[in-house]
Amino acid sequence: MLTPRSEEELSDAIASADGPLSLRGGGTRGVAREGTVLSTAELSGITLYEPGALTLLAKAGTPLAEIEDALAAENQMLAFEPMDHRVLLGTDGTPTIGGVVATNTSGPRRVQAGACRDYLLGVRFVDGTGTITKNGGRVMKNVTGYDLARMMCGAHGTLGVLSEVGFKVLPAPEATATLVYRDLDWQQTAALFASAMSSPFEVSGAARLPAGAFFDDANAALIRLSGFEASVAYRTDQLAKRLEGVVAGPTEVVASNNTRNTEIWTSVRDVHALADPTKDIWRISLKLTDLSILSALGAEDEIVLDWAGGLAWAAVAPGTDVRATLGAFEGHATLVRGSADVPRFHPEPVPLAQMAKALRARYDPKGILNPGLMG
User: What pLDDT was estimated at residue 144?
Assistant: First the structure.
């Protein structure tokens, strides 16, 4: 295993590599490629944090928990609510901020706040030739030219190895409340969420947990509101009244001073309900106004719907090809963990695949960075 302790050592390791490199941050996503393991764990530490400027820079191997603790001490947060995969995938290790950026990991607040790449101020990375590259800075601004920071976000290390990342951060909400609606079918769930999201009440999360999660007797559709205490109380009441014309309820309101809110939305974010090691796990991006296609996957108690994140997570029998099961649909499916003999990532449209191939040829001409992972 290669464990560079500085950006210069990282550059030397990649430049001198004569074979494929399997990149690893915290090792929590369970993805292993052929080749020598190259770990960024020693590239750790917050290099700049200016709460007044809502700006944070950190080395790529910095544990996500360390960053979240530093932000919490100033009542701030990473607005895109990054997921922790360990419970779902049964992995060990420590989530790192570089892994978050490399996979564009974002959570239920994405519908209101945006995704990881929307808060990325800049990156430093080493490409497949060993060249150190910096892009972006400490402020959000529109510029001409290549946006390499966002190009690296979601590239899964196939274009370069991140050494440092910078973010815009936001104040943490003062209060959170959750409306709970139980035992709804997919059609009712879609109607409920569509009405809530089209309201003026600034919903910060909408999700559906299967029976056996937090609400044992039935599935639960959840709607979250966040912000100042008085605002949350008013919006929760008004939204509940608006939704009375869609479905009966709510069956419960988890008040803003209830710690269950954190537990519920951590479970949604990290998909705890599907932590069954005997099943394959798929992440499905789909047209949210049509949830009927999920019926093709079988048991509803094996699906977690993150409506606000535009995702459905499904636990299926080993070897199941969800893409074949669903057929043609508006979206894509990614194999997160499993034994199905299919590509991990959904096949790309030809123009996009050609562009991705050209980028990999430019930034990894030797084809050594997580080869074959994304095509």
Answer: 46
Same structural domain, 32 and 131: yes
H or E, element range at 123:
strand 120-126
DSSP codes of every residue in 333-346: EEEEE---SS-SSP
- The rounded distance, in Å, linking the Cα atoms of 101 and 156 is 8
CA dist., res. 168 & res. 166, Å (int)? 7
Express each pLDDT in 336-372 by its tens digit. Answer: 998 888 888 988 888 988 999 999 999 999 999 999 8
What is the value of pTM for the model shown? 0.92
279 assigned to some structural domain: no
User: Do residues 164 and 186 both lie within one domain?
Assistant: no
pLDDT at 141 over 70: no
CA atoms of 40 and 31, how far apart (whole Å): 15
222 and 83 fall within a common domain: no
Structure tokens at 240: 């509940």
Cα–Cα distance measured from residue 159 to residue 323, given in angstroms and rounded to the nearest whole number:
27
> What is the reported pLDDT for 36?
95
Q: Are strands 21-24 and 36-39 parallel, antiparallel or unpaired?
A: parallel
- Rounded CA gap, 45 and 308, in Å? 32
The identity of residue 41, as a single letter, is: A
Q: What's the rounded mean pLDDT across residues 288-296?
A: 79
| Number of neighbours of residue 6 by Cβ within 10 angstroms | 12
Average pLDDT over residues 49-60: 97
In this prediction, residues 64-78 reach a mean pLDDT of: 98
Is-cis flag, bond preceding 250, omega within 30?
yes
152 three-class SS = helix
Q: What is the DSSP string of 92-115?
A: -S--BHHHHHHHT---TTHHHH--
Is residue 265 one of the residues assigned to a domain? no
